[in-house]
Amino acid sequence: FFFIEETPQTIKPHSGELVFQVFDVGHGDALLLRTERQTVLVDTGRREIEGVLISNLQKLGVEKIDILIFSHAHGDHTGNGAAIIEYFPVGKVYEGPGQPPSPLVKKYHDAMEKRGVSLVIPKAGDRIDLGGGAELEFLTPLPGFTAPEVKKNLNNSSIVARVTFGQIHMLLTGDMEEELENELVKKYPSKLQAQILKSPHHGSASSSTVPFLKAVRPEVALVSVSDKMAAEQYHIKIFKRYEEMGIKTYRTDTQDTITVRTDGKTYQIHTGKVGDLK
Prior knowledge:
disordered N terminus, seven-stranded mixed beta sheet, alpha/beta, about 280 residues, about 25% helix
């Protein structure tokens, strides 16, 4: 694989290519996964970045969202759900079971009803064909880790999914913390491996435990984090852990949008503002 920073990026995936992007949305997650056939948006960041998110998607040539996944109900992941559904044609929405009816969740549910968008509650093991041989597999929800069961810590109700494209694997983790990481390591002792890890919980010390990282064996960790959060000790601890374990770290607070392009055999990583795309 190759790391190419500050390199102009083409707008749409080429034939036989998968593109994965982690947008700079400050504190929050907004992830875009595209093949020639499917466009998947995972989380929508905080309400305050609505204009930035929609502008980024426009600049990338996104005209519709085939699949919109909400990892869990916290506002830094669901903040622009309604705006996305109102602005773009959306095929299906996926969320974990029993998510609490927060104002933001209710707002995107109302937008779904208005637009006739169907809701899917996935089960662990469910798979989505992304086209061209790419596939997304849900590793959660697991018994004991759904929203009704983890009321005090919704992070551990996060949808976790593994994307496979040829020989390349990506692990999408929401905000899961140590308890769910431990459960995944027990349930999937040989299935978590992925070259590319979307860092759990914005790179905080609540997550990225050593046993989990040993099971995943990532080459790179992509961290969606604000500059204020990244400066705090409990993030610095994890950045150091990644370094000690030979995991190269990419961070939205210092490198803006992170783009992974892969043909299923190798991958390249680019960084820079979406507005700089050619």
